[in-house]
Specification:
Elements: H1 3-15, H2 20-52, H3 59-77
Length: about 80
């Protein structure tokens, strides 16, 4: 895929769009994509820092806690 060519084609097509909701949706898509990359990178950095400080928990422990939490939540909404 030629990214420059694809970008150019998208820009040409976007210039012809008069639908405000479509423009807003496209803008939101781009904004969220950029934000999510930054948020993901920050989250990974926090995780690496925690790992370096040995602030970690075993996978089995976390999964058991989640299972307990989810079964409690489910029982509140779907009583037997």
């Amino acid at each position: 895929m030629d990214v420059q060519l694809e970008r150019s084609e998208i820009i040409k097509r976007l210039k012809k769009v008069d639908d405000e909701s479509l423009i807003t949706a496209f803008k939101d898509l781009l904004d969220n994509a950029l934000d999510s990359d930054e948020l993901l990178e920050a989250s990974i950095d926090r995780g690496c820092a925690q790992s370096e400080k040995n602030e970690v928990r075993p996978h089995k422990e976390v999964m058991a806690e989640l299972k307990e939490h989810l079964s409690y939540s489910k029982s509140r909404f779907y009583p037997r």
